[in-house]
Amino acid sequence: MEYIYRFSQGLHLRQIDLMEDCVARTSTTLSRMNKLLRKVCIKALKNLKRRTGLRVGGKSRQKFVAIDESKFAHKRKFNRGRCCTTWQRRKGWVFGMMEVKGARRLPVLKMVKDRSRTTLMPIITRHIRRGSTVYSDNWRAYLNALQPLGYRHLTVNHSENFVDPQTGCHTQHIERAWLAIKAQVSRFRGNKTTKLLREHLKFIQWHYWLGRRNRKGALAQLIHDIRRTYRFRFH
Questions:
Q1: Strand 64-71 to strand 133-136: parallel, antiparallel, or no bridges (unpaired)?
Q2: 58-192: CATH homologous superfamily?
Q3: Residues of the chain with CATH 3.30.420.10
Q4: How far apart, in whole angstroms, are the C-alpha atoms of residue 100 and residue 173?
Q5: Residue ranges of the ISXO2-like transposase domain (predicted)?
Q6: H or E stretch including 92?
Q7: pTM for this prediction
Q8: pLDDT 10s digits, 196-232
């Protein structure tokens, strides 16, 4: 239960600290618990996606969707060591779409092979509702391409301003989110493969879409998802 609590709160999960705190006696047990809980969160997010499509935005002017791409590349310490199966070899781009409404944030994070229009536009139309206000920089992949599809598209030229002086458009919300997401990914053990990066991104989305939106807290949501995953073992 102590490990489940720490996991749900997104706390540091260094195995040496957990063993010193007597949460578990071996790193094998800790790794197994982490793997099982991560699978529970991924399954819960998958069920949510099946029901809702993980769609963000809408015609309301009280919210907007900020979109941006960020490079997730594993850095070798002192430029030594082999790249092997790290996501650096696959370019490591993650495309993010974040709905902002007051203090609420709902991100959709997708690993992409490149930042071309043919790659990004299908993701945008699948996850952002038509009629939404979309904030972005002047990246050519979606410049002059969103308005014909029914989006209200505002841009900011980062070579001139961080916030557009006329429209107030900015991408600061998602840029701050990238810093927090990368810091969280770097704390996870074994974060060097493409598969594990994809799992970490799904867990982060679970935290925003389910954990934070449960009025009883992330721990209550995680226990609920555990019960749904292993419901036959509770009877």
A1: parallel
A2: Ribonuclease H-like superfamily/Ribonuclease H (3.30.420.10)
A3: 58-192
A4: 8
A5: 55-209
A6: none
A7: 0.85
A8: 889 989 999 999 999 999 999 999 999 999 999 987 5
